[in-house]
Amino acid sequence: MTVKSAVTGRERCAPIRRDPRPVDSLRPLTEIPWMSRVSAIIVCYNEEDNIRACLESVSWCDEIVVVDARSTDRTLEVVREFTDRIYVRDWPGYREQKQFALDQARLGWVLNLDADERVSPELRVEIQQELADDAPGIDGFYIPRLVHYLGRWWYRGGWYPDYRLRLFRRSRVRWGGVNPHEKVLIEGRTRRLSGSLLHFTYADVSAHLLTVNRLTDISSVEALKRGRVGARRLLLRPAWRFFRSLVIDRGALEGWPGLFVAATAAFYVFLKYAKALELRRTAQRA
């Protein structure tokens, strides 16, 4: 199956074809005798444009837990159509909010999604196959994340496969990392899946730049706390990020969208350290 790019008009492969195993090669769901029960957890804030598709993609899960940071749009109205396991609380940070969501899950396996992500049909079948016998000896699965942005699926530029630990035994993990780039810390063995988690990350260029500005407000504070600031990082890290995305990760093959993604990736790094230096100088003057 092909999809047409909204930017270039060229036909491009849909994500289903890039998975190593086609869905037709997997066992039908009716042949799977039993599956470990799964809790899907989602944290959100003002996601009325994304949340329905996200929830529809995990409607097969045995439990859906949603933690909302007091949305002011129709997010909660949509969520109530899918689950009554809803928690509304202030936003304490990415790491803390996701740990809270994990604590509310009641089942043995947990599937963690962001509101702008969707489980592909291929990934759903693969998960159900893997958990049919409770995946003995495995405590978590890394899932490739495929980004849709600027009218195309991004297999280049450093955005794919972007493996993330998103399916795991609830009893074997806790949340760690540094805001805004939190991560799951697991004790036990892990394995990779091939089905993709589809990520509809930015609606347009303006949304992308707004997100860069918002996330660097958080990451600059964390960088300052760890003492990782200075003119050298401000100058060299963005340059390396640009080169890696455009050349090493072959973003240049995407044309001007690849150039834009490389430039914004470099700008993110530059802005993070620039804001950290500003915060340090402000503190020194106080």
Outline of this structure?
It contains seven helices and 15 strands.
Describe the structure.
Helix content is about 35%, strand content about 25%. The protein has about 290 residues and is of the alpha/beta class. The strands form four sheets. Strands 5-4-3-6-11-8-14 form a seven-stranded mixed beta sheet, sandwiched between helices. Strand 9 (about 145-150) and strand 10 form a beta hairpin. The model is unreliable at about 1-35 (pLDDT under 50).
Pick out its properties.
single chain, 286 residues, alpha/beta, 7-stranded mixed β-sheet, 4-stranded mixed β-sheet, 7 helices, 36% helix, globular, disordered N terminus
List the helices and strands and how they pair.
Layout lengths: L1 E3 L6 E3 L24 E7 L6 H7 L5 E6 L6 H5 L6 E3 L5 H11 L4 E6 L2 E3 L1 H10 L9 E4 L1 E5 L2 E3 L9 E6 L3 E6 L2 E6 L3 E3 L4 E3 L5 H21 L5 H18 L7 H30 L1
Parallel strand pairs: 3-4, 3-6, 4-5, 8-14, 9-15
Antiparallel strand pairs: 1-2, 6-11, 7-15, 8-11, 9-10, 12-13
Helix pairs in contact: 5-7, 6-7
Mean pLDDT, to the nearest integer, reads 88
- Can you tell me the overall shape? globular
Q: Indicate the percent of residues in helices.
A: 25-40%
Number of helices: 7
Spatial separation of the terminal alpha carbons: 60 Å
Approximately what portion of the residues adopt beta-strand conformation?
15-25%
Radius of gyration: 20 Å
SSE succession: EEEHEHEHEEHEEEEEEEEHHH
